Amino acid sequence: MSLITSRGLFMSDKESPSNESIPKEHREQRLMAFQMETPMMQIESNDYHDFVFRDGRLVGEFEQMYQKSREVPWHQDKDIARIDCRVALEMLATRGPYGRIIEIGCGLGYLADMISKKLGTNNVLGADISATAVSKAKVLFPRLDFTVLDITCPLNLSDSFDLIVLRGCFWYLFPQIEQVIENIVKLTKPNGHVMIAQNFPPLTGDFIGKETIPSPDSLLERFKPHYDIVMDVRLDDRQVKGGNDFWLIFLGRKKAL
Fold first, then answer.
1. What was the pLDDT predicted at 53?
2. More confidently predicted of 204 and 48
3. Domains in the chain, ordered, with CATH?
4. pTM for the model
5. Which of 8, 17, 107, 160 is deepest in the core (most CB within 10 A)?
6. Buried/exposed 82-111: b ≥16 CB within 10 Å, e otherwise
7. Which carries the bigger pLDDT value, residue 90 or residue 29?
């Protein structure tokens, strides 16, 4: 299995168009993406929540989070017991086999490992914006490949996959959601699949990102122009011990051009 790198995935400075040739709204998106990957401040905390949201806004300091958190962020080491993960894995198994697989936003690699075992393949690449997370994932799961990837930046077309998986990522990606979905589509091979598992808080309340993704259906609709939805599951885990969310889990097959 070839290992893609962030250098291989994204435009270099020489490949990128000049600011003058980019529409104003796209320049603003690029600036927002740059601000997300460039540390705004050093956060002195060992609580992973402080690196994600603060004062009603997205902070997104994931590299610092993985360096400083006293516990496993989002308790990823417990994912094997989570009902949404179990449902997603069963959904994937009904449509396989797949060729090359990538999990975007893999964190420490626990879900990538679960996908590998469930589907009986080591052809799984985990990708995350945090170099520290990637380094730790390589130690935890040495039989899998991991790489640093910022899905909010423009991609070149150096690689593609038969299955792309994202779980619980869009509350950290919503400021660049158009670019993110464009990248996901580009990374999907013809007739390839995407699986999105996204949790939602109570929809009647306010939450960060609601103006962009107000409901599960609104997220699903953003993918429908590019994918035929072959499976769509809505899961309320608030009645399950340890659960506190409503989940949208869908599997889509890329539409023919």
1. 81
2. 204
3. 73-254 (3.40.50.150)
4. 0.81
5. 107
6. bebbebbbebbeeebebebbbbbbbbbbbb
7. 90
